[in-house]
């Protein structure tokens, strides 16, 4: 019997397909089998390449669909053919590193209480964190620690999550079959997250396991065909909203220092989430605020320029500032302002929706 089965669905260009399999076949042995589900791909070069691979490798099987049926259905087809104890789901734009897949299998072997495990996912362009599992705010979910250095202590720590991303995760086949696989009402969104959440709510652990690592090109693995996917978000929160714990404050608390609560802060909100929601997210964290300013951030402008967004009365204040933003990357490039504030030892903090806690004056030194 194979140690595990890799399930991958294809709906992309030939170059990415060749790069994906070139990497995959260099890091697995024939004790892992691979089920490739072609999801409506008609590119002749890709099909010929898959035929060639299947003839060369006895542990590779390919299933062809003439129409695009979407991520959940395609993966369910591949999973139904496996006889292995574990299913490893990989996006076709995901590139596991070294022996990461075997580390995931060993971790599951040693951890019977774990139902699903996700490795650390990195941006191939920057080598920074893309996902360390899912975390939840107020009716919102994000990938944990997006943009953070992979050597950060919080990133290197194995941790339980409520949900995980299925582009690079492993689950027990018995659990997957018991849940009838991914929910086929979803189409290229939410299905992997929802499955892991269901397993978590059944009492199994969903674990972020950073010793397993992979690069993810992000957005390249599936040709984008037009679908109205707006219903999916509403459907997900309708089904699960009252069962999900808002864990973002806990993620902050794990990183904040006792010294941080000794200061008073001006609150500057540059997030798309308004201040009344942030008051919920910050509730329970003993910050003392002495003033507040809301940045009117343009919907078409990601980066925040502090000079044209926040008055000098705040930026030149000797009081410390707590910045709340969607991503710390939106604001961290304000070198002039943060360097100026460093001159009088300001104790500023940036909190974002990915659970990142950034001290900008220290970050500038890196």
TrEMBL record:
GO terms for molecular function: transferase activity. Keywords: Transferase. InterPro entries: Glyco_trans_2-like, Nucleotide-diphossugar_trans. Residues 5-133 form the Glycosyltransferase 2-like domain. It comes from the Bacteria. This is N-glycosyltransferase. It comes from Agathobacter rectalis.
